[in-house]
């Protein structure tokens, strides 16, 4: 019976597509599902983190990545695949706890990025690599396309210039649309629309599963992860870093600063100074109920301003509709307060674009912080003297660019002397599907019952998220891996059961 | 667990007081093959979680605690012959009684001759109340609190504030005190208690102040609530606490309805029903708190019985044509909602012999319901009933008793 279930589950997690994907031989790649991950976990991990005795001062890591946001996860994956021995340090109880937890879940083409910028090349390289690897990792991609909407003469006048910029950025499939053509595509748009252009390749992705997949692949291919592990001081002796953390000292040959909102502070710890100063920029979002996602298919973008891409209205792969983000500068790095007046304005803005939103319920509100600084451009630099690479000020587009940024950082590391033999047969994790399109676990036999009714999260999904090398280490982490309690009732029915599941599993493993 | 057949007579969605009493009544009235689907691991609904009195007065003339009340509802339904399937979620309702069901063993489709929706209601979460501040742990609805305490023996906080003074706020307070949690205060926007004024005495006896004319402005804290900012006539002030319980502002659990073709009344948030409890697709019926926010368990129990009577009549082909129902006209801006929203031609005893109404504000004066003038003096969240009388132009409508 058990083995039967396992076979079925392996099928459920997904058909694995083997294609010739770049330099790695995915044809011969070993794929694993969550059952074999458990085996790995029992050997080396406790509660998802490396067992203490396993990481004594024996030998140094090749690379230490400081910060497990989406960028840190992608960097850890890249270097692991390139054959490096990687350690990832995260100061929060679980990964994706800073800037990466509040984004708009879009895979951007870079059509509106500054021409010739590093951001543009990272976004486009990231887009390409995501397309290449996502089937193997079982990650969703909803190619819904975006519409850049002009609501007044001023904005309408700027459309041709934006399209020229898109073309210059190599996005050559933009289509200018009249008002009638736009309304025909999206009949629920407010009637005072003037014109629009369409960006066919702007897409929706799963902002949680993607970075989890990146880091999980790193871990399965030999990387180590320490959570609840903040950097306190560091010393470079000319050959090796000695990093003092809240969990003791670690040695590594090269340090990569992917600390996001703390990027400048980590640079100061490592090198005594930072070339940039993070000034967090808050973005608040309003998430509407699943029924609202039927109102629109495209990602609806405004004509951007100097400071921000502006308020976006778009579906999520989880089947909701979100409106946001705002752009509000603040000093505090670890807290993003919701402001009722701003949320009401956002709601109103959403209604201004899609009038039918007025009748929809709000499912969730959230606020994220972007690691912005005075310069608009990404601050990525290698410091050969100290063997540090800083990835700073990824104030936006981090989800889109992560894989591209990681590849770029890898080329910097090569110029600094990094040399290893890439893995021949990297292990490829097959991620569970969270996207509404499915196939979801609740539709499959043996799921052990739905626990979170709004998002239809099963007991089996919850338990699997609490196992393996990247097991959830906090309730927040469990929610991000499964979406439990994130639906319309926000935990009214299931938070007790989800909490119990988390505690039971933790007690089991201890 | 009995296997779910692919074709059944009556399918009941939801195992709370309304669904269980309907299951009992239908089975006792001789309908065979009454199947009740409950998505939780056990039936009984919200009363399972309420470890306090009073329950059972209307049903059995005695005062009971929530869990034993829920237990008795389930026992009666099973004794009458109804079959209860737990851990079974309805995921889609299609035209003509085809229902998609998810079980731990996968997805099935069931065809029923009649479907009763009794999915109940839930409280409005923090997200839709537009409260400012951070999003720490320890912020929840009464439902989540009661499930943590009753089912999982957890104490999520020690000194929370309670938001709202509907009846359920007092349930939250009792739940807290029974679990050894000492709420700091009950916070109410209005100048008086929403529930009956007599209940004001209870927080006083339990040593928990009620602050009127006070709103919750923001929640503070990183991993757990550390304090809240409240706004009253004197301005903003910060209150130390470690949790926030958002009570009340119920809304029907209408997720299934919203993804179906069935008509919804925007005022109740529940389905549009006639006096037999029939929805726009007459295969479907509804009873209990899915109809409106919100009534007591006893009231829902009675509705379940009455709509069960309609279902028996429908199965026997005795009900009039639902498609020819006429909308009920009301006048009066103070009316928040009323039901039934449409009336079908009379064809036997109705499940709803009264219009149920609620007001959106305290109101004294005249309203018109279905062509009849009513003088009201009432407040929000008070049950207002007025008998459904035959339409003026209806010739042969019998007197409803």
List the topology elements:
The complex is a heterodimer of chains A (510) and B (401).
Chain A: H1 2-13, E1 30-32, H2 34-44, E2 45-46, E3 49-50, E4 61-66, H3 70-81, E5 86-89, E6 106-107, H4 118-137, E7 146-150, H5 153-168, E8 175-177, H6 179-185, E9 195-199, E10 203-204, H7 209-220, E11 224-226, E12 231-236, E13 241-245, E14 248-257, H8 263-271, E15 281-288, E16 299-302, E17 312-315, E18 321-324, E19 328-329, H9 340-353, E20 362-370, E21 379-383, E22 388-392, H10 398-415, E23 427-429, E24 450-452, E25 457-458, H11 459-465, H12 475-482, H13 495-509
Helix pairs in contact in A: 3-7, 3-10, 4-10
Chain B: E1 7-13, H1 17-28, E2 34-37, H2 57-60, H3 66-80, E3 83-85, E4 89-94, E5 98-103, E6 106-117, E7 121-123, E8 132-133, E9 139-141, H4 142-152, E10 160-163, H5 167-178, E11 185-187, H6 201-205, E12 210-211, E13 215-220, E14 227-232, E15 235-240, E16 243-246, E17 250-252, H7 255-258, E18 284-286, H8 297-315, E19 326-327, E20 330-331, E21 335-339, E22 342-343, E23 354-359, E24 363-369, E25 372-378, E26 384-387
Parallel strand pairs in B: 1-2, 1-6, 2-3, 6-18, 8-13, 9-16, 10-11, 10-16, 11-12
Antiparallel strand pairs in B: 4-5, 5-6, 7-17, 13-14, 14-15, 19-22, 20-24, 21-23, 23-26, 24-25
Helix pairs in contact in B: 1-3, 1-8, 4-5
List the defining traits of the structure above.
heterodimer, A: 510 residues, alpha/beta, D-Amino Acid Oxidase, Chain A, domain 2, 3 domains, eight-stranded mixed sheet, five-stranded antiparallel sheet, 25 strands, B: 401 residues, FAD/NAD(P)-binding domain, 2 domains, five-stranded parallel sheet, 20% helix
Let me know the number of strands of chain B.
26
Number of strands of chain A: 25
Q: What overall form of chain A do the CA principal axes indicate? A: globular
Using the 3D structure, state the CATH architecture of the largest domain in chain A.
3-Layer(bba) Sandwich
The CATH homologous superfamily of the largest domain in chain A corresponds to: FAD/NAD(P)-binding domain
Alpha plus pi helix count of chain A: 13
Radius of gyration of chain A: 22 Å
Largest contact between chains: A-B, 46 and 43 residues
What is the makeup of the main sheet of chain B? 7 strands, mixed
